[in-house]
Amino acid sequence: MSARVLVLGGSGYIGGQVARTLAAAGGWQVIVASRRPRAAAGVRTLALDARNADALAGVVGGVDAVVNCVTGGPADIRANADALATALRRQARAPRLVHLSSMAVYGASTGRIDEWSVTAPQSGYGRAKCDAEDILRHCPNTVLLRPGCVYGPGSVQWSVRIAQLLRERRLGDLGADGDGYGNLVHVDDVVAAIRQSLYRDSAAGKTFNLSLADADLPTWNEYFVEFARRLGAVPVARIPARRLSLETQLLAPLLKLAELGLRRLGLDTGGLPPAITPSMRALWQQRIRLDSRRAAAELGLRWKPLGEGLAETAAALRVVPLARQPA
Amino acid sequence: MIIDALELPAGTELQADVCIVGSGAAGIALALPFADGRHEVIVIEAGGARHEPETQALYAGEVADTRLHPPLDRYRERRYGGSTTTWGGRCVPFDPIDFEVRDYVPHSGWPIGHETLQPYYARATQLCEAGECAFDAASAFPRGLPPLLAGFDSASFSTDTLERFSCPTDFGRRYRQRLDAAANLRVLLHANVTGVELGDDGRAVSAVRAASLGGKTLRVRARCVILAAGGLENARLLLASDEVQRTGIGNAHDLVGRYYMCHLAGTTGTLALEPGVAVRYGYDVSDDGIYCRRRFALRADAQRRLGVGNFIARLHHPRITDPAHGSGALSLLYLAKPFIPYEYAKRLHGDDAHGIGRWLAHLGNLVRDPLQAFAFAWQMLTQRKLAERKFPSIIIEPRRPRFSLDFHAEQLPNPDSRVTLGSERDALGMRRLHLDWRYRREDVETVARALATFAADVRASGIGRYDYDPDAIEAEMLRYGAYGGHHIGTARMGRSPREGVVDTNLQVHGVDNLFVAGAAVFPTSSQANPTLTIVALSLRLAGHLQARLAAGAPHAAAPPRELAA
Lengths: 327, 565
Ligand SMILES: Cc1cc2nc3c(=O)[nH]c(=O)nc-3n(C[C@H](O)[C@H](O)[C@H](O)COP(=O)(O)OP(=O)(O)OC[C@H]3O[C@@H](n4cnc5c(N)ncnc54)[C@H](O)[C@@H]3O)c2cc1C
Known about the structure:
The complex is a heterodimer of chains A (327) and B (565). With 327 residues, chain A is α/β, with parallel strands linked by helices. Chain A has helices spanning 13-25, 53-60, 74-89, 124-137, 156-167, 187-199, 220-231, 241-264, 278-285, 293-298, 306-324; strands at 3-8, 28-34, 43-47, 65-68, 96-100, 111-113, 142-147, 149-151, 184-186, 207-210, 288-290. In chain A, strands 3-2-1-4-5-7-10 form a 7-stranded parallel β-sheet, sandwiched between helices. Chain A has a two-stranded parallel ribbon with strand order 6-11. The longest helix of chain A has 24 residues, at 241-264. The N and C termini of chain A lie far apart (45 Å). By secondary structure, chain B is an alpha/beta fold. Chain B is built from 17 helices and 21 strands. Chain B has helices spanning 25-31, 53-56, 96-99, 114-127, 137-140, 171-174, 176-181, 233-240, 300-306, 328-335, 342-349, 356-368, 370-385, 441-461, 473-478, 531-550, 561-564; strands at residues 2-4, 12-21, 41-44, 62-63, 90-91, 157-158, 162-165, 185-189, 192-198, 205-211, 217-227, 263-273, 284-285, 291-294, 296-298, 311-316, 402-410, 418-425, 431-436, 464-467, 514-516. In chain B, strands 1, 2, 3, 8, 9, 10, 11 and 21 form an 8-stranded mixed β-sheet that branches. Chain B has a 6-stranded antiparallel β-sheet with strand order 6-15-16-17-12-20. Chain B has a 4-stranded antiparallel β-sheet with strand order 5-7-14-13, with no helix packed on it. The two termini of chain B are 31 Å apart. The interface between A and B is medium-sized, with 19 and 20 residues. The complex binds flavin-adenine dinucleotide. The site of flavin-adenine dinucleotide has 40 residues of chain B, from helix 1, strand 9 and helix 16.
């Protein structure tokens, strides 16, 4: 009989990819749990509030492994970690837990950062992710993964929105504002890391950074220029610092207000243009390089080269507008 | 870390692995690879963040013939970022022929080949913010471009090579954050190096001496010292540091300051095209967003056949000063002269005074052609003044297919063209430079033969004619004197101390830990503007120094006795 894996947050971007990949690979019976699960081929779905320990305890007892891809606001992140830890503690035999954390736990650190570097979260999100790690690290049989910026077909944050900004010429070569390193990791590599973390006994109790090898990390400028070229959003624009300040200080707050307004009216916010927030601007300047050698060595990963990943991503993005056209 | 030396206690002594003198293109390109690394680096910069007249005045010197060369405090900037605070941003790599020994060019040939430098051009182009290292039309424009000049069929000129443009990037501003953030880097502002001190045996630098205009002094001891103070000032520092080596450092064979080269440039003749001949005047923007421009480049085999130096020419608008062009935009530029920086106004207008009559004629052009002038002013405002990546130069499509030709030619090496120390001293007590720039008949020949070949090829192609006055070439190329801002050859690279001041690693022959960065080390000048190659050489030098330091190069030489006391 095949092993059973519970994917929490399974209708999110990474959770969804993990569920699909595991189901397609065979050998796993995949149960996808989320608040509003969507039916998908080859997986069982389950409506469940991952902040509720009792609800979780009811399912984690019956599985061999849990992949925790739950995300949300800081309170949700902490509540989920607490609930999950409580539920796991109630089990006689702990399933393998693969928990998706984030490079946000390193905050504004610079230089080369490995898994032993001190965490110094700055944002509410980063602090919550850090707390969640602390809560779950003490559960037996746990693997913590800290991905950098996850890009790839369908990645809203680092591919779809960036593509839109590049096409609108709101992004491009940012000069000194884009000198930070893009600690990018392709979604397929994140999924592969999760799979390996499920299989490998030696991974238990360990933490892994996930990003391109540090010699291959592009600067954000390089990422934007290369991506724009693949998208055909050329010639790439040079964005003056002045313009970025307008974006982060004027346009972003306005967009946030618009979003809140639309929400309140119960309307779809998907039509709003993406914002460039002050935290994005800070990240794009940050000279931080995740050292991902441990993941490469111990999880046996080979990072997908950026050029290849961007080519795929751009190709996927080109298909979308066509699909939207009326038949 | 960026530190103002004015805030350090007087008499400070600092230690580092690497000490770089100057924070222009050469110095910053050299410092950046060290950022966040294992080695301690100090950059000593004479100026502050802004242009300061008293600091700039330290650059003043004597010019033997002021018709031939601009004053020495012009066309270079003594401030953080150096002359990249004012440069035009034209990036062009050297050609393979520039490195070769050419039997028809005395003193030619570099001790390193094109292939040695080639690997550094990609990163250099990036640092200059000129995009990818693609300097031919086919690789920069894979979807193709219309021809530069349709029907121009020439075995002697290529129209495929590109110049790519930097923003133009002020290296100081652009890389400030990176220099400031690196804990192992210290950039000292307002610290003028006044001397390089050698150990008693003269074989290694023991300390670098600096002073601020406020009267403070400081000393830096380092395992390696690199002079990156610009093509003129590097020579001045070597010559002025004469306490141990009496003729100046590295000057045992009287080479320091000699072979001083600029470029030979001018605008001449009229290219009149037959109606309907397609011509691409101006810039093309590559996918990576860079302004690129093609030009007529004299091919290597044509240079050999003609026995001349390297040469390129660009299509150009008619001379601005002559109101006969009838262009409102050009007349606007004439009238706007008071608002254009000296360095640029000079080549736009010349220095000659013009009467009120001419001024009125230009005003007439403006009144008759206000739309063109307005469109031009709007472009200058939006694509130059307000843009971070600036439209590189003035492009005004002529009403009739008439152009002049703007040429930029190699100046051949000439030991008699030189800088020496003059008799006057600057405010810090350092002897000022005396500059005697010379050109030779062969330099005129480069331009004359290249233009004659161009004219013949235009005629033979049946697309029009290029008319020029062969007898006026010399006057034309000297109209504004030596091309400003390119200071080349004063500490040339050579395999042996007889042939050059520095060796192939840019180390001063015979001085174990002293290096020179910048165009001073170029043995020949090429057709190319120097900065891209300066940056490439600095990157190569950074690699060499890192390897050397990692291999455990010795610490600074023991100080001479009186200092140690
Ligand atoms: C108007 C103009 C246009 C130009 N356009 C182009 C172009 O289009 N393309 C191109 O390739 N090149 C161009 N150039 C040339 C270009 O600016 C130089 O090649 C380049 O800046 C040289 O770099 P460098 O670091 O060797 O010298 P610099 O940039 O001159 O820097 C030297 C630095 O050393 C410092 N310094 C000097 N003396 C001392 C001292 N005693 N102690 C401490 N510090 C000292 C100076 O303050 C300065 O910061 C142009 C120059 C000018 C003036």
